[in-house]
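Quick one - first record:
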Amino acid sequence: MKRTISIVFFLCTIIASTFGQLTIEDIWKHYTYYPFGISKVFHSNTGTSMYIVESNKVLQIPYSKQKITTILDANGRIPHEIYSIQFSPSEDIMLAATNIEMIRRNSYSAQYYVYHISTDSLHLLLSDSIRIQNPTFSPANNTICYFYNNNLYITNGIDSPHAITNDGAYNKIINGMPDWVSEEEFDIQQAFAWSPQGMHIAYIQWDESTVPEYTIPKYGSTYPELFTYKYPKAGEEPAQVRAKIYSVQTQKTSTIQFPCTYTYIPEFSWIDSNRIAFTLLNRLQNKVEIAVYSLLDNSCKIVYTYTSKTYVDIPTYFTHIEGTNSFIICNDSDGYNNLYIFTYESGFAKKITQNLGDITDVYGYFKESNTIMFQATNNNPLERYVFELNLQTGVLHCLSDEPGTHTLDVNSLGTGWIREYSNKNPMVTVYIEGKNLEQNREPFANYWMQDVAKNMKFSTVEFFTIPTQDNEKLNAYIMKPHKFRKTKQYPVVVMVYGGPGMQKVTNEWNYDFYWNQYLTQHGYIVVAVDCRGTDGRGSNFRKQTYLNLGEKESYDFAATAQYLRTLPYVDKQNITIQGWSYGAYMALLTAAKYPDSYNSVIAIAPVTKWELYDNIYTERYMQTPTLNPEGYKNSSVFTYIQNIKAPILLAHGTADDNVHIQNTYELISELIKNEKDFETLIFPNDEHSLFGKNSRIYLYSKYIDFLDNHSKSNK
């Protein structure tokens, strides 16, 4: 249940279409009107340029207006498309990932080619062509550490690899990469790190031997292939997590003993060559501690403790201030996420941000300028601005001024960055910026998007607020059909998510845009609303759903329907609620608890009761089923299923490893038992996102058919 952000880089010109209707194929097959670009930017170690992969070529793009050059043309030299790249410390060697195989939603293995830039030589990293994960150069030389078959290895690319660990085994021990639930919920992409001088490797080990297994059948043969993996559901014991240090010189490994009890290690980072900091989290995730381990004397000290009445937010954005005994961290102790400086010895805290609303991302501390770059709402939950704060002078500089959403991708020195900007216009603009550059590049603006919107007469996005009977105001937006008339009544589709700390109502372009336009072109009003529990409005608003997921959110979505029925241009008998994942859960729960609120329901890959979802996510907000039985009962769709009146369209993939189809199957049983009206779309071997071959086309075709069948006034 996370959002993926990509940097869009525009390299070509699009000719705007003439006025016409969007098609489902435009949106979900050909991606006709989406911004063209790349998903990854690779910054140089020198801080003067960046690299991208375009048409299987690696391009070097200076931050200044210098010529774009081709570093490697892999066409005809590498049999597969380059997926990602990385450079050695001196940038004379490049690793290119190719022939990837997705492992989980955000992780993959790949074959890696080694490219020596000066000699234009190219060869496979490992001669037997195996797929590996996360090869990472030592900061000191060209030695590479990588993950394979649950173990870590070191290679210089010439001699045979040396195994750092040998106890890794599938569904038992994982060294240096996260287990399924830690990757999903803590967004851990890699769990090993070189020390600054390359003398040690710190890594996290997950022992999941006792974690319960879940099995997913993969269809296509006479007997389905069974995929079994470790998935701890709410109330089940998680994997045991240990922190270890490997010495490159002695080839010995030691296990760190922390002076506190903990369950999870969601973050860690080297402070210097002799010290490393670990974020330690208890099982209920209401207490976080920072432990600093010293290699000089094998000591370990707790330098920071924060306890919440509800839950703590991860990541903490722990950042060591180089050359000092201080660090920066983020917490919400004053009701908003703010940045603080703490000292290792005394624990003294100094708040360094204020009156900026919530800090929503931190891009890093940069020694040369003594600054920290971060993103914040600037007291408007619909917006995201980026800032640079000088720690010596206290001067705060806003790097963005246009209303909308700004994100940064900054190089390691803080001297150059990509700033992506978008709003609901729609248009996405990419700026290449930096410090001490005489001439920055012109922005790459996707002006064609505005032309398409104008020529195809797209609906505009109008922001407004929805009042509730208990005096809350919910942020929302509305999109009305072309040639909208106040004297006509239109059916409405309400798009919901509602999960803790997430938002649908922001001033930015996102991938919902074109489907929303499709609906408006077919005569529907589209509304999105952020309920209580969502992000951008401080911790009091975000955390009031604690221990009772679904209670206040469903109330707010019912209030949304009630408010919409007061509008003269809304068809009061044709209001649909639609959601995916947590949003699907909210759609079903609202229809069950408030059966007169919506006239139809579309639920894609829903959670139906929290005992069926993973323990890290669920226990963060609900504690365990043993500690909070009433909360789990009240949050379950099954508790209120007999009340449902609205027809339901259910969709789910059988290979969904995130929200198991078990949720939908058990719901179907209860719907049948209670003689409820529903339709089901099952996608064999498809996962949570339903991006299998033609899946999206089929799903959204049935989606619009379902709407039309239950919105007769729209004909």
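second record:
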Amino acid sequence: MARWVRTSFNAGKLSSFLDGRVDIAKYYNGCSVLINSIPMPEGGVFKRPGTIFVAKALGASRLIPFEFSANDTVVLEFSDQKIRFFSNGDRVLTDSLEISSISLSSGLPVVVETLSPHGYSTGDTVRFHSVSGTIELNYIGSPLREWTITVIEDDEENSSGSTRFSLDGTDGDDFTAYDSGGYVQKIYELNSPYEEDDLFRLCYIQSADVIYITHRDYPPKVLSRKSAVEWTLEDFNYKNGPFLADNTDESITVQFSPSADSDSEPAASASGYYFPEGTTGTLTSTGDIFNKNHVGSIWLIRNVRLDNVLTTPDNNTNSMPTGEGIRIKGRFTFEVLVSSNSFKLWRRIQSGVWQEVRTFSANTAYTSEETEENVYYTFTRSSTGGSATLTAKNQICNGIVRITDFTDFRTVSVEVVSPVHAATSGGTDGIATSMWAEGAWNNYRGWPSLVNIFEGRLWFAATAYNPQTLWASRSGDYDDFQEGIADDDAIVLEIEDSDLSEIVWMAPDEELIIGTMSKEYRITSGSSDDPITPSNMQARLQSSYGSYPIQPVRCQNSILFFQRGGRIARLMRFNEASYRYESENASILSRELFESLPVQMVYQRSPFSIVWIVRSDGALVSLTYDPREEVVAWAEHITGGYSVYPESGKFISVAVVQENGADVLYLTVRRTIGTETVYYIERMILQIPNTNQPYTDSSLVYSVQQEEKKRVVWASDTVLYGSGTYGTYQYGVIY
């Protein structure tokens, strides 16, 4: 009887639909069943290592990587309205505080007192270590212990803060008497607005020590790291836009009126009269344009200013001007009549330094256009004689207000964000104008679903109101969204698609690639050598597969995304011959793998190229990918009682960060311990060769030493191994 000798398994798991397909070369390099094993590009297969227990999660957490450098990485645990942090296999904790006493009373919670004010809050979670006597408090033990606290305020007001707290759910009778020593540390965490159901609709992108986060139901957020135990989560403070299209109904005007308790007298300057930033008041309309969900949104108010004319030079030496000049936005002329001297035109932004524009030594009528806000111009002459006139005609003043309260459909309270033009210095109202525009992002129109960075711009996309629109910041200025015609101005692009399908992902490559629910596009300047600008930006159709709303990953020279419906994985890469991005079906040989839909994808670079995909049924799928060797090898991974107990051993989320020179997987896993459902943060290190790695999941590692011999003992939280001793060291199940 002839026997096939399989020397390679780098085709991975093959679909049952391929049974008997001996005419396909991959048939001889694949497996019908491949579970908890990882195909290698070289052809071999090795058993995946087990996972190491890190900490108990707060729930079905979403994991997000933070990688500042190869040696500076953190994993963020997003749970229900909380964020916690992990580094090098453990939680991020605050500095240790020394304990002065521990009080144990029958029927009452344990009370801990610290030598100095602790600064903790009720509901915080803490760890203890080096406590003598009451050793049951120490974190290292069986089980690993973390405690939720209630702060005890001092009887007398203590300006320096409390030094006492109790441990929730404890009884002093259950603990050994306190002896001495010990330290306490708080688990560092942040409050977050995102609820558990929101977590897998978050989109994020990192830039240095900042992560930008979007969700269609929340304003964009900025998560910033100040230090290892100092992070902030704040609303993204964008400015100068973006706005919807300008109003076209001239019968609907808006008018700003300052409140009585603000400075109702408009500020006067050489550039006209305006209500400065911070002025409060009301915005009234002649039409029903406001909504209660507009509170917090910005609105653009445009007014035509009268001609601004400057006829007197700032000095007669052509040296640096010292005056204010006139504020100009739009077209202007500089008419010069020269006798025996010369004139210089100067420009400055806000209160900055005057910069010379050019020198005029002959009769000239110079015309230009200013596109930026808050720009001032003036002129000087080399000596007395000659004349000049600087005239700004029909300037458009762009004022911006933010709605602070809703009165009715025609009246709202506002605060001036950027100066709003006034008619005269003595007037108390702004100018009624039909030139206005609503902010593009707010609670009424929705918030961007997607965010990314490309060519020095911060990109947002897809609100509920504008699902096919992209917004890009000013080049080099991520918070400025003022549109213009200059190459570095902010950009707005609406995908012209008859299907009206929503943008569901963005992926930067040589060009910016986007996926909509019906098609895939590349955003380009039209030339591979030119950056994208407001005048050359265009969307070019690449394919019509349609995209599933899960963020893709870039692996080697390809982008892996899921086709509409979520059942087919596609690898997209640029074809030099056709000069377009083409997508091949990467899962055609393993069709059954995605009968359950994908939830999340991450990319691991070493020890070789692997994409990890969490499925909705709780399985973990790996793709070993090496295009040069034509390796596209899938495998399936399960944990615990996944195949026996449907609700136990489910992978929830995965993240990859580099630690100590290795790519490390962090996982959120749902497990059943006895009758309790718990969520764990676990860690898997994939190394070749796989030395000193556990092959049990949710394991704990103990290093014990006896007679100068070391031994590593693995204990699993998933599989019951019992308990025992090694020398004087005890090991057992941790739960």
